[in-house]
Amino acid sequence: MSEQKTTARRPKRSWRNRWLWLAGVAILAAGATVYAVPVLDRLEEQSTNIAEYAEELDELVAQNTELEERLDALHTPVEIERLARERLGYVREGETAFVVVSPRLPDPTPPAEDPVEMAEMIEDEPWYSRWWRYLSGSDLPADS
């Protein structure tokens, strides 16, 4: 008997199959990149927002603590009396309350109209507004 070597022959991949496979991988990689870039940008933006919100939360917690301390201080009898005297004008028995009223100042006179300023305002108006003011007589000086 003759000895024959039986070798399992692997089918050769043709270059065409390899190029198709490489093109498919490249298309998948490009698609994954196009999808991943906006997602990564959003993740970065959200992590920045989280840091900003954490700082804001710390500030609000400190402010809340300060307001709670002020609220606790308002419930003391001394503070209640001070606020009643200051805001409501309360006095103790035997005390006399005085209210100081400042004299009323006269209303300031309106500034005289500057003719140059008025001319500039008129020039800024559209022609039809100037024409209507002329026809309606509203451009005439008011009788005093």
Which structural traits does this protein have?
mainly alpha; single chain; 0% strand; 144 residues; 4 helices
Task: Describe what you observe in this structure.
By secondary structure, this protein is mostly helical. It is 64% helix and 0% strand. The longest helix is centred in the first third of the chain and has 60 residues, at 15-74. The radius of gyration is 43 Å and the shape is flat. 0% of the residues are buried. The model has no long low-confidence stretch (mean pLDDT 81).
Summarize it:
It contains four helices and no strands. It has helices at 15-74, 77-88, 115-124, 127-136.
Instruction: Please give the radius of gyration in angstroms.
Output: 43 Å
**Residue-averaged pLDDT, rounded?**
81
Low-confidence stretches: none
SSE sequence, one letter per element: HHHH
Basic shape: flat
Find the count of extended strands (DSSP E, 2+ residues). 0
Strand residues, percent: under 5%
* Largest β sheet strand count, sense and barrel closure: none
Q: How many H/I helical runs? A: 4
Helix content: 55-70%
Structural class: mainly alpha
**What distance lies between the first and last C-alpha atoms, to the nearest angstrom?**
140 Å
